[in-house]
Design a protein that fits this description.
The structure holds two protein chains of two kinds.
Chain A lengths: L2 H9 L1 H8 L3 H27 L9 H29 L1 H5 L2 H27 L6 H23 L4
Helix pairs in contact in A: 2-4, 3-4, 3-7, 4-6, 6-7
Chain B lengths: L1 H8 L2 H8 L3 H27 L9 H7 L1 H21 L1 H5 L2 H24 L3 H4 L7 H23 L13 H6 L2 H4 L2
Classes of the chains: A mainly alpha, B mainly alpha.
């Protein structure tokens, strides 16, 4: 059903330019990976704390407030570079299972992070409860799937 | 060195690893995904040194409670990285990006060593200050730049643009030691 859309992406001027350039994919991919580090760090610093380890002497909500802007900035850059990567090879991705796993889990991860997780962090204090541990563990799990599926796109 | 790597390249385990259907991708994926934990936590340590985040958290607390995670994940990075190198040692040895990455790893290591040996020793004297000492900020900035370049060059190792057998420009030919390989 979406194949015409992916075929159309390939014919756009941006799509053609990116597909023909030798360096563009490598450079965008490299930026995507550097930002992955920042996104991973901004999420994990808080997720570890939610699990009751890491910066245990700091209140969870304080740490969450510090990390939030980094997570938002990194997520925006990840999506921007990710879309450029997608535009570079749309037909290959259309037939790639890992790509679709990533496309379906990414909104779940984003929605969870910026609704449930954000709310739990804001209401948490010093103590890691079963609720914070559940949210921290779920966050690591769902983002792991997004990242692993993303890496696996290149292996299929 | 080249001779030793030729031997390593021909060992059965190296060949099996490079040709494996699941092992190689799993090791490589672990290497890439651990970036989030390793460079991610290292980066937040550096951001703190630069005063970009967590300003109400003393530096000694960040280094005390976050760096153990950084160190543990570095072990995973090093093991998976060495295994990837072992799977195709000759090709990596003559790859410009791999050589650049190794050089940067040495620099990042020296920077970390210097930071812990000299600067971090007196952390309790300055970790509550509004602006941290120049040496601490410089170490943070050096680390950030080095690791960003390491990630980028690590990714570019995968490209064969300057492969010795494809007749690279003279400078690459020299920097990659192609003459030892292609005779």
């Amino acid at each position: 059903m979406l194949l015409p859309f992916f075929e159309w992406i390939e014919t756009t001027s941006v799509g053609e330019a990116l597909a023909q350039s030798i360096w563009s994919f490598a450079i965008i991919e490299s930026i995507h990976l550097v930002v992955l580090c920042v996104l991973g760090g901004s999420l994990l610093i808080v997720d570890l704390r939610l699990l009751g380890v890491g910066l245990k002497s700091q209140p969870i909500d304080t740490l969450g407030a510090y990390a939030h802007r980094w997570a938002v900035g990194a997520a925006i850059l990840m999506i921007a570079t990710g879309m450029l990567l997608m535009i570079s090879e749309p037909i290959k991705l259309y037939y790639n299972t890992s790509f679709w796993v990533k496309i379906w889990t990414l909104p779940v991860a984003l929605l969870f992070t910026f609704t449930v997780r954000k709310r739990v962090i804001r209401r948490a204090g010093m103590k890691a409860t079963w609720r914070t541990r559940l949210v921290g563990g779920a966050s690591i799990a769902v983002w792991f799937v997004v990242a692993a599926a993303g890496r696996w796109i290149g292996f299929s | 060195m080249h001779g030793f790597l030729e031997w390593l390249d021909a060992t059965p385990w190296s060949i099996a690893l490079l040709e494996s259907y699941w092992m190689w991708p799993l090791i490589e994926s672990t290497h890439v995904l651990t970036l989030g934990l390793f460079v991610g936590t290292a980066a937040f340590n550096d951001f703190r040194l630069l005063g970009w985040t967590m300003k109400s958290v003393p530096v000694s607390e960040v280094t005390g409670r976050i760096l153990p995670w950084t160190r543990a994940s570095f072990v995973v990075m090093a093991i998976t990285g060495l295994l990837i190198f072992y799977s195709d040692p000759v090709r990596y040895y003559h790859n410009i990006f791999f050589r650049f990455k190794v050089l940067l790893l040495v620099l990042a290591g020296l920077n970390a060593f210097w930071f812990h040996r000299r600067i971090h020793r007196s952390v309790e004297e300055w970790d509550h200050l509004e602006v941290l000492p120049r040496a601490a900020r410089r170490a943070g900035a050096m680390s950030l730049i080095a690791w960003a370049l390491i990630v980028i060059s690590g990714r570019l190792v995968a490209y064969s643009w300057f492969n010795c057998d494809l007749g690279p420009p003279a400078w690459f030919d020299w920097a990659q030691g192609c003459s030892i390989w292609i005779q």
